[in-house]
Amino acid sequence: MKAIVVGCGRVGSRVARQLDRSGWEVTVVDEREDALHRLGENWTGGFVVGHGIDVGVLERAGIEEADAVVVATNGDNTNLVIGQVAQKRFDIQCVVVRILDPARAEFYATRGLRTVCPTSTAISVLTDAVRSCEVNREKVAG
Amino acid sequence: MYILVAGGGKVGANLARALIGMGHEVTVIEQRQDRFDKLEEELEHQVQHGDATEIYVLERAGIGRPPDLVLGVTGDDEDNIVICQIAREKYGVPKVIARVNDPRNQETFDLLGISPTVSATSTILALVEHEVPEHGLIHLLDLRNENLEIVEVQIDKSSPSAGKTVAGLSLPQESRLISVTRDGQSEIAVGSTKLLPGDRVLAILKPGWEDEFRRALISA
Question: Do A89 and B111 touch (CB under 8 A)?
């Protein structure tokens, strides 16, 4: 199985490494060549320098044979556009897009894009954490 | 009309001034503080500060009414695409116009159905092409929705079409001649219209047929 990861920041690089470890053939795309170091010294997967909005760059990364595309650059709108290009132009069935803004993540999810919103996740985890504190305090008080 | 202008740079600000001058109701959204401050001095309540791809910013600017027209004219192509998609698909804005900053992104605007688009680079290039027709074929207009284009060619002495009638040409299947201009006079091209050296000919064709069209008319 082949995966392309667009954006080699904290998130993208770790996703790439984990997929690589579980047997995927992974190619990473990032504008900055020095982002390669995030993949570790022993990175044997692919790495293409370029902007993911550039169709030529996606093609060089092998998007035409990809089974999955993960889009995790640091720009929400860039991710939304690249994700839609992967879906509509290259007909990739599994496209996962990181969106920090919950409102845009929700809207594009209704349009058939699989969005993952770390902000929403953080909000619910933090809220749950606080709620569980209250429970414990009640227990102490009780 | 109520018009929302996303992006208050040179393009957005000047559009807003012109549209206000024409009597339209306009709201400009600008993200950069320095630009916003300057614009606010001039346009007062007609400019809003914020990221025009944020839904709450759009709502504050009145996207829910919805506007008759949204202009996505920021300096960022992805932002313009997202603004136009949200406007049209979430709020039912009937018409959007997007600015293409990098002409290489044109196909992505087309792929995602964002139309019409305006690109300064492409417009200037087309004008340059008009001045210096490199291959004899001048693009005058792209009809994106129809997937057709209107081109102009000039017939010269060595052209294979010189001296022939329109009916006598072996034009590619996906093309038609529109008109022939000679000595400042134009006429609609019909089967009996004869082409002469010096004539300027307008034609409509499907993209991809340019080379065959050029061979049939101007170079063997």
Answer: yes
pLDDT at residue B14 in the model: 96
pLDDT in tens, A72-122: 999 999 999 999 999 999 999 999 999 999 999 999 999 999 999 999 999
Pairing verdict, β A2-6 and A25-30: parallel
The domains of chain A, with CATH numbers, are 2-117 (3.40.50.720)
What average pLDDT score do residues B78-94 get?
A: 98
Task: Look at strands A46-49 and A68-71 and give their pairing.
Answer: unpaired
DSSP B193: P
Q: Is A85 part of the contact surface with chain B (CB cutoff 8 Å)?
A: yes
3-state secondary structure A11-36: HHHHHHHHHHHCCCEEEEEECCHHHH
Question: Do B64 and B2 meet the contact criterion of CB atoms below 8 Å apart?
Answer: no
Q: By CA distance, what is B114's nearest residue in A?
A: A81
- CB-CB contact of A27 with A7 (8 Å): no
As a whole number of angstroms, the distance between CA A55 and CA B186 comes to 43
Confidence of residue B129 (pLDDT cuts 50, 70, 90): confident
Residue pair A97/A74 in contact (Cβ under 8 Å)? The answer is: no
Contact at CB, B55 and A107, closer than 8 angstroms = yes
Rounded CA separation A84/A97 (Å): 9
Residues of chain B with CATH 3.30.70.1450: 133-217
CATH class of the B133-217 domain in this structure: alpha beta
Residue A142, pLDDT score: 53
Nearest to B90 by CA among B57, B61, B66: B66
- The SS3 call for residue A45 is coil
Beta carbons of B108 and A111 less than 8 Å apart: no
Question: Would the pLDDT of B117 be above 90?
Answer: yes
Distance (Å) from the C-alpha of residue B75 to the closest C-alpha of chain A? 13
Q: ipTM score here?
A: 0.89
Q: Which CATH architecture has domain B2-122?
A: 3-Layer(aba) Sandwich (3.40)
Query: pTM surpassing 0.90?
Result: no
- The CA angle B1-B5-B6, to the nearest 5 degrees, is 150
Output the furthest CA–CA distance in chain A (Å, rounded): 65
Q: Is B120 on the interface with A (CB under 8 A)?
A: no
